[in-house]
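ESCALATION

Customer reports they have been waiting on this structure for their group meeting. Please prioritize. Original submission:
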Amino acid sequence: MYDMSFNSRGSEISSSSMSTTRSLSEISETETIRLGLDLVSAARRNVRFLRAVDDSQWLHQKPVVIEAIRRYDELWMPLLSDLSVGSTPPMILPPLDVEWVWFCHTLNPVSYRKYCEAKFSKLIGKPTIFDEENEEYALMRCREIWVRRYPNDPFENEDDSGSTNPVSVNQELLLEVTKHRFLYSKFSEPYRSEIVYLIAARQRYKGFLYMLKRSTDVCSPLVPASDILLMWLTHQSYPTIYAEDSKEVEGDLEKVVPIRGTATKKEVEETKNLWERTFDQPYEKAGGGIVLESEVTSVKPPVYWDVSDTDFNSKYKSTHPRFLLEVCVFVRLRAKMKAMQEQVKRDNLRLRVVRCHRELKLDKTVSSFSYTSWQKAWHLYCEFGTKGIIFELRRHGGGYCFKGSSLQDTVTFHWNDLLRAPSLTLEREVDQQVKIITSITPPAQAPYLLKCVPDRVTDDSGAMISDVILKMNQYRPQEGRWLSRTVLDHAGRECFVVRIRVGEGFWRRGGEIPSIVKWEDRIIEIREGSWSYVAGSIGRAPERVVGTATPKEPPEQWKAAWYFSTGDELLLRWGSSISMSGLGFCLRSQATESTAKLLTGRRMQYRMRKDKSEYYNERSRNEEEVTEEDDEEEGFVTLVRFTEDDPDGRATALLNWKLLAVEFLPEEDAVFVLLLCISMLRSISDMKKEDVGGLLIRRRLKEAKIGTRDWGSVVLHPSSSSLSISSPYLQPWYWNAKAVMASDSAADHITKQPAFTYSPEEGGDKLYKRGIFTQNLVWF
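Update from on-call: job pushed to the front of the queue and completed.
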């Protein structure tokens, strides 16, 4: 964590003049400092640069770092000094390793200035190049100059032997580079590059400087929130501009912004209090929080938000991207409410969403809030489709029960209004009693969420087995029998239909009986789109087939094998143990750009913490509790891809083959993930000779109505005190998957199949049990 402090002799304004608060949006450059840099464009470029550094694993090996420091110190800086005209640097950019060292060095302005003046008698700046095409041209031009000047030193860092003597390296530079190794992790959320977010961050940075300029009684360093920190570091990374701009604040660069290692809780609280006194707003906001180093591991965001350059699934018209935004709500009571203590005790504040998740009702007693300072009431993540949040002030007659409370007033914050608001923040009052400030981040694409639900048996053409279809076909018997599953997205929309072939032939009333197809013909196919309903819930599957899985003879020591239309091959086996240790996978991919691996359980970003008490609701001792780790992870499989940029692997999907639910990044193929999930369930059911995932169900189970408690639409942050009363639907689905995926049927279809009555034309249990649990012995 970085802290800021300013030397008190640079400011002549007393702290008593801060009694009148200012609106953050009213702060002008004459009241703070003139910014000689397009901070929005520069910050966007820096986030992109930090991501490239983070992705380049080779860059962080010690021999490479040492060589990069040598190249920076002996080659790049002398070259740049010679080409600079006065304080104006040439429009060239160095190779990545050198630029990384340069960037880290500039984040210590005092050290960088001393270094430049000692070696070159002037402060050397950085060119303002923000466009990617111009960056590429500047890099190419630098290469040409470099090759002419240093013919014996390659432009790219090719030293990975470790032969460089560590003693000869600039130890101060080595310390700076090492210290900033994981800097990108502070700004890795995808919304950090959004223009509207960066504009808001720039205004908050100016407000931070304004606050410092007016404060003479600051005894300890002030701690920048993450959005302000991004602007501050970006400003520093352009040394000559930063030195010129900061003179208006302090006049002496060495006394302006010393960097310290770790912030204390006291320093954070002092910064928050000073900000509130200056602007009458909470210092923290969505996308602009402060996490102490001691809290990094204990307070983990509940959603995995990664930057995806491309959405592989945009080619499927039936898939709809999912967008998330972070929301922070702060509350403070009006001072006049002090005289109305009895009324305050009977009031409570309720949070709901405008659209989706109608069951969501988060209550807090009004008396729990302060009259003097802003308190964080809720911290959550919402899908953009929720439209906004509503606050209701409710009053109950007495006691501690909110049942039967009467509505006093409501206020609404719509996401679109917040996106147009200064600093992405709005303030509202409820019944002239409670002041509420809500802030958001720009919506950014989040992982896809899909689940498969049972549906009716279909024939070879994709039509459901029904008298309705029979009549439409002029009573010509329907040929073939396929188990069907409908794929629903996060909003309950149908996007794919999965079919598993089981039987062939016609089934006439009292006549012929379809036969079981051969094992190699029991294919799985995925069709893109939704059912075409012709009468109620009876319809036809979409025509376009976008993926298939074909069973094949497994190699020795494997029990099942599938060949996918994507060019991948899946091998499975199940040992004698009933635990997850007996389950084995092997994924062979035809792709040349990456290799994929399947890991049993929830791994990497999906891994569960050992201390579940921080995340789960307290469960009664009388309820069944899972004690074995293998049992907890049963059904979960993590898909990890290895590329040149990610040699250690990157999890791109989490599957639960038992519940047929998946979460995957936009860069992962939905059809491939679904094929994996269905093939696993199909094979494991056969190997265990047990309907472990409800494959024999041949009716659509009663689902929760769309908008009732949509999974993934609202997720509470673990730091929110409301977590103790939250339902599984306010947590990531894989924290309590069984509860989230359970249907509204009276019986849980995972543990007990509902008592459905199937028509003779669909085929009895014997047909489907033989089609699922018995392999054709042609292989053996």
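Sent to customer with the following note: The chain is about 25% helix and 20% strand.
Escalation resolved.
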